[in-house]
What we know:
By secondary structure, the protein is α/β, with parallel strands linked by helices.
Amino acid sequence: MQSEPHAELVAFIKNASQIMLFTGAGISTGSGIQDFRGPKGFWKTHQPVMYPDFMKDESARVEYWNQKLIAYPSFKAALPNAAHRACVQIEEAGKLGLLVTQNVDGLHRKAGSAEDKLVELHGTNTQVQCQTCKAKSEPDSAFAFFEKHRSCPRCECGGFLKPATISFGQNLRPDDLEKAEACANTTDLVIALGSTLSVYPAAEFPLIAAREGVPYVIINRGPTEHDEMKLVSLRLEGDVAELFPPAVDKALK
């Protein structure tokens, strides 16, 4: 059951024309995707594999693929929830500047977010990519190979395959950073949805806008690293899928 929309959030959305939406793992937990950095997050029980280690050590590659295999069934089965659809509503209303997501689950694309309005800062699990020739392909066959052979799948060129995500120790794509920064400099409202705002440089983008006096709204279940900043205009505690969609519905009526 949707909650009564928060009046101030409704007003912010209604009055804005170029909204930057910034989303993290908390927007997808309602779709069955495990959080990574929350109290029960994936990284509480698993040690991330660094990208340089992946490239030089087969045991690191096997550990990386083991971790991905654990999470893959939930990623594959997941469907967008009301919060993802609310992001699309904002886009369809002509109010979206850019949707910047830290998530690799591909749910914004599944919900219908347009490619030119979406930046997946940390890549996506919906494809695998060769680390040598950079070719991308569907992931099922690579996961099937790993599950059978317990060795890192390889591209036809001989390069190592990995999901097309940005690993720890791997550089973000410059084009994505430039696009997100450009939006942060032109937006008139920033809404952070389901992020602990603890991973940089990603979490810097809402602050770029907020430092210019743009309203900054945070909706998250649990604390974020921006909670105590005076730059934050509105902080709502709770489930993004319960708090955000009703506000969008009311603002766009």
